[in-house]
Amino acid sequence: QVQLVESGGGLVQAGGSLRLSCAASGLTFSNYAMGWFRQAPGNEREFVAAIGWGGLSTYLADSVKGRFAVSRDNARNTTYLQLNGLKREDTAVYYCAADRRWITGLRDDYEYWGQGTQVTVSS
Questions:
Q1: What is the tens place of the pLDDT at every residue in 55-67?
Q2: CA dihedral defined by 7, 10, 12, 14, rounded to 10 degrees?
Q3: 3-state SS record for the chain
Q4: CA–CA separation, 9 vs 91, rounded Å?
Q5: Rounded Cα–Cα distance for residues 62 and 16 (Å)
Q6: Burial category of 45 from C-beta neighbours within 10 Å (exposed 0-12, middle 13-18, buried 19 and up)
Q7: What are the tens digits of pLDDT across the range 6-26?
């Protein structure tokens, strides 16, 4: 069975930082591009960042470019999302996803999803 488990979310003040982790199991991790999405109440799930099979290609949404960074450690079957300079509008549930085809920002392209981790940014 494939499992993606996010961790590292929490409550942080505006301007602060968090590091989210996504641990994968049940798949050959290096064969999958990994993505991060987020969803706030009343909004659709939106693309945040993605990283290719070997970690050399990255893709970030314009809204987080310059503040967030995505990375992966294939030896640990884990991908990370570093959140810096957090703003109130970053408050959302953050989801990890896996795509065996290619790096993509399209939600429907991803095959597997984690349960999400809550990030709350206070004023």
A1: 889 999 999 999 9
A2: 80
A3: CCEEEEECCEEEECCCCEEEEEEEECCCHHHCEEEEEEECCCCCCEEEEEECCCCCCEEECCCCECCEEEEEEHHHCEEEEEECCCCHHHCEEEEEEEECCCCCCCHHHCCEECCCEEEEEEC
A4: 10
A5: 19
A6: middle
A7: 999 999 999 999 999 999 999
Residue 5, phi then psi, degrees to nearest 5:
-125, 115
Distance CA(85)–CA(67), nearest Å, equals 6
Does residue 123 carry a pLDDT above 90?
no
- 92-99 vs 33-39, strand pairing mode: antiparallel
CA distance 104 to 119: 23
φ/ψ of residue 29, rounded to 5: -55, -40
Distance CA 31, CA 34 (A): 10
